[in-house]
Input
Amino acid sequence: MPDQPLAEDENVGRTLRDDEIVQGVINRLAPRYEGAPTPEIESALQEELVAVGLGEQPAPWVHSTAIEISAGRIVVADSRAQVALEDLPGH
Output
């Protein structure tokens, strides 16, 4: 099955790009929504993720991410995503 590793590599690359997009959305919303009500942040997250072409994300992930944003904590979508530290809120 020589094609299997290539297919897996393509899927990993796509996932990392998606994670970088998710991280960008989080980084844009976090400063604006720190301290905001969780449902408001959940709505903003879903709207922005749909707007960038990723579609709606699982409600449990959106909810926990919204809690972290509201509390002012840094949210990292995937540690492998290529995001500079200075791009994270609060840096």
